[in-house]
Amino acid sequence: MTATPLLDATAIAKSFGTVVALRSASLRVEPGEIHALLGANGAGKSTLVKILSGVHRPDSGEIMVHGEEYEVRTPRVAGEAGLGTVFQDPALIPDLTVRENLRLTDLSPDEVGTWLEHMDLRSVDFDSLIRDLPLPTLRLLDLARVLTRGPSLLMLDEITAALTADQAEQVFKVMNEWKDRGNSVLFITHRLGEVMRMCDRATVLRDGRDVEVCIPREVGEGGLVEAMLGEVVKATPEGSAPVERLTEAPIALEAIDLSSSDKVRGVSFQLRAGEVLGVAALEGQGQDRLFEILSGSRRPDGGQMRLADGEVLDARSPYDAVRKGVVLVPSDRLQALLPKRPIRENLTTPLYNRIGKWFGLAGDEKTRVDSAVERLSIDIRAGKQAGRLSGGNQQKVVVGRWLASGFRVLLCFDPTRGIDVKTKQQIYELLRELADDGAAVLLYTSELAEIPLVCDRALVMYDGELVDELPAEDATEQALLTAAHGISEEVA
Amino acid sequence: MTTASIDVERGVDWGSLLRRYGWTTGVWLLLIALIAFYASTIPSFGSFQIASIAKNSLPLVYLAIAQAVIVVAGGIDLAVGSMLIFSNAVAAQLMDGQSLGVSLMVAILVILMAAAINGGVGWIIYVSKVPDIVVTLATLFIIAGFALIVLPSPGGGTSEGFRAIFTGSTSGTGSNFWPALVMMFVPMLAAARWMKRSRTGLSLYATGSDATAAYLSGVSTLRAKVVSYGVGGAFAALGGLASLAITGSGESRFATASNFTLRSVAAIVLGGVALTGGVGSVVGAAAAGIVLFVLSPVLSAMGVDPNTAQVIQGALIVLVMMVAGVVELRRERAE
């Protein structure tokens, strides 16, 4: 390893507004190696790849390619420097045909077709629109397009996430061939089995820093998981409700064999009043779709939802779900709020339906809002516009408006994304409190460490299915992460 | 993906072709049906009527193409009507009493000028990040104002030869429909081919369809914006020149500008161009421009009151959109 590294990025930092994506990340890729870039959700992997491919510009840090300093200004410049990227979302134009997409990027359809054939994908009609092609085909097409350019460093951001096992095999074959030609591959994946099998070295990111460079075969999957998690967060003693209460409590929401294309497959669970049920999953395992269905944004292809007393919930829109007391707290707070309107008005939004009288707000309006504000200790002096509140306070307003309107089932989709530790704690205490008062809470969080702190039980979702259920005391971060990687199922 | 490894060679997929070009084909069929109906209602239908329809719909056809190019690339230009009257006014002032040769030189200069101005507008939109509709609402008034400054009252003129290029006769009226048809189809097909075949043209579709994916593919979205507005400006100028050739003198009323702008938007919507960008073709938009023009004589031939005719024009747009929506919904269900 004394030769000049192919890529040498040092102390890369990048912030988006107040959100720090990368603090100081370094990455060194040698010629002729397959290098894994690992890290938990939000560790900064995708940001680093986007910086290397010229999508974002770093705030500070230095990038050397083949020993020469290099300023990657646009994706085009990155391509010319021999850095080729297959992004998480295929960079193909949906309204153009395959052929037109290739002409747009000045590539020969024959060469791309040769790569596709090499990957055993022969059924692609080059005259069909991109939007009509299935996602796995688009991934492989994007890969073929990048390979045609002959990059010396091939960067693959979660390429296997949407692929079937045999398609993934084709990608692995190409990766090995690419390495044998003296080129390198930077491989990002959540599937540790793939890392063990394919990668020569791995760089682990945590909280925007590179914390470890190791050889996967030496440290093993356990070692990789440990490096990704870092120090174990200390569990607070307060929390879980007594287990015996759970089985007695009535069911608040029951999902029976829910399915939606191949994103959600046969999901069944029971959520009881008074419990916080956690959902653990890596990105893109169908949890988004599941919450869309539960909250009434999307109708399932199959299956059923039932409320307390077996009443069937057949929501055509969130409006129907909300009326039945099933409400959602999304991760994108601005999606739920009216950012330019005052806080008080935001808190009363769900009550608008009640203004049946049309003359002013219902009489108990003010008391309801006041009690919500007080209970959540929302800092209402902070601004007239909800959009000016801090992320944590915004999220409190989102929860608060459901408090003001009343609910039975609270669906929380990653409610603490990008929120500081103290407010996180407050939100968790609030969820616990709500559950103790008899509400049923379904909580998906991308931070697995939170699940044992807040939840009574945890479900693990992988590839559209519920693969595991753990009681709170067994739902350690390690156990969840292992299950969430689908490792017990992995053949390799 | 159970279909890996089926036949490599395959015939023309008519289903997918029809789906891609179905709307455009539909609008042309609607146009043909309208003209056939028109022909059956009036006592005599011949080359004079064809020439009349062809030449008089030219300004709106050019404007529909201009709007289509811009909207496909993800923008919208409310000022195309102003650019039309501005080009009309400048050309009428400069061509008045001149020879055909001078008129042609002026025409080329006017087109280049309009392209440059509108390209600049596109650049301003990109750099300032102010929405297209806001910037071009402002330029709608500004450019119309300049048109009035150039030509305060109707007047000016052009050479007889120049009138014949667009209308087929030196007086502006006659039975020779070939020049008007050539002036309609050549620019239209050239624009269509450029949009679908050249890398720059495709980059307009790419930017309008998914600007992020386009950027990641190495497309310059700035260039796409400037080029789309520039080409749009050029076509708007062609519209101004055509109306000068038809009437033989210039006029720069603001009402004409705003009316033309609104009709250009109606034409692209009817012509299958998605206002969200990335979808549609100039060929469909051009056909819809003729449909909107032909509709008034057809309705008056049917004895419909002109005020009611306005209502019917609007209803037609809604009807076509609804039919298209139902077709699309059925297709999605079927898949």
Describe this structure in words.
The complex is a heterodimer of chains A (492) and B (335). Chain A has 492 residues and is an alpha/beta fold. Chain A contains 18 helices and 19 strands. Chain A has two domains: 7-229, P-loop containing nucleotide triphosphate hydrolases (Rossmann fold, 3-Layer(aba) Sandwich), CATH 3.40.50.300; 243-484, P-loop containing nucleotide triphosphate hydrolases (Rossmann fold, 3-Layer(aba) Sandwich), CATH 3.40.50.300. In chain A, the strands form four sheets. A six-stranded mixed beta sheet of chain A has the order 6-7-8-3-9-10, sandwiched between helices. In chain A, a hairpin with a 2-residue loop joins strand 1 and strand 2. In chain A, helix 4 crosses helix 5, helix 7 (192-198) runs antiparallel to helix 8 (216-229) and helix 14 (365-376) crosses helix 15. Chain B is 76% helix and 0% strand. Chains A and B meet through helix 2 and helix 3 of A and helix 9 and helix 10 of B.
CATH topology of the largest domain in chain A: Rossmann fold
Structural class, judged by helices and strands of chain A? alpha/beta
Share of β-strand residues of chain B: under 5%
Q: Radius of gyration of chain B, rounded? A: 21 Å
Mean pLDDT across all residues of chain B, rounded? 90
Classify the helix fraction of chain A into a percent range: 25-40%
Q: Quick one: CATH class of the largest domain in chain A?
A: Alpha Beta
Which oligomeric state applies? Answer: heterodimer
**Total separate domains of chain A:** 2
* Classification by helices and strands of chain B: mainly alpha
* C-alpha termini separation of chain A: 29 Å
**Helix segment tally of chain A:** 18
Number of helices of chain B: 14
Rg over alpha carbons of chain A: 24 Å
Give the gist of this structure.
The complex is a heterodimer of chains A (492) and B (335). With 492 residues, chain A is α/β, with parallel strands linked by helices. Chain A has 18 helices and 19 strands.
